Amino acid sequence: MTREAIFAAAQALFSERGFDAVTVAEIADAANISVKTLFTYIGSKEELLFSGRPTVLDAVVEAVRNRKLGQTPLVAAGQALLAAVDDEDPDKNLDGFLHLVSLGPAARSRLRALWDETEDALTAALAARRDGPRELATRRLTAAQIMVLVRTVTSAEVGDLIAKSADSEAQRREALKDWIRDAAGHLARGLQAAGR
């Protein structure tokens, strides 16, 4: 309960005032704990940027791990991103995730660490028990390909493109879905051309 209170307080304060304007002491106070107690649950303020609950990145890993027989990892990841566009859960919603990413340099720094962790998790999800070095290297390549899609979806350039492409929230969601589909298609065709 304390961990959830810490993350909830941090998310509320970050949304209201931005990451840089909120101190660790204010987060601890809002969670009704001491700063010392707060640091028994987290290692740094940056860890609070993305909730302690599953995120869009976790949904991508789960989709790849539990993909249907015959479904490519890239297609499974793309479907997870498409589902995240309309997800009602603020932790799993792509828009909420993108809002956190836009909170400044500290958020971008934390996001880069999360991308690395997600690529590692994808590689592990793709690996089979009997994989040798060659197969493991191929799994890493596939995980990196998926991360190209994930990273660009969360980029400032795509955010700007989507913001300028439509007038309403519904139109922006559809434009983002179209972009995800097109980007996944480009990546898939690129691998096919390379003989994969």
Q: How would you briefly describe this protein structure?
A:
With 196 residues, the protein is mainly α. The protein has 10 helices and no strands.
What does the model show?
The chain contains 10 helices and no strands. With 196 residues, the protein is mainly alpha-helical. Helix 5 packs parallel to helix 8. The radius of gyration is 18 Å and the shape is globular.
Can you tag this structure with a few keywords?
196 residues, mainly alpha, 71% helix, 0% strand, globular
Structural class: mainly alpha
Query: What is the N-to-C order of secondary-structure elements (H for helix, E for strand)?
Result: HHHHHHHHHH
Oligomer: single chain
Question: Can you tell me the residue ranges where pLDDT is under 50 for at least 5 consecutive residues?
Answer: none
Q: How is the biggest beta sheet arranged?
A: none
**Radius of gyration, rounded?**
18 Å
Tally of individual helices: 10
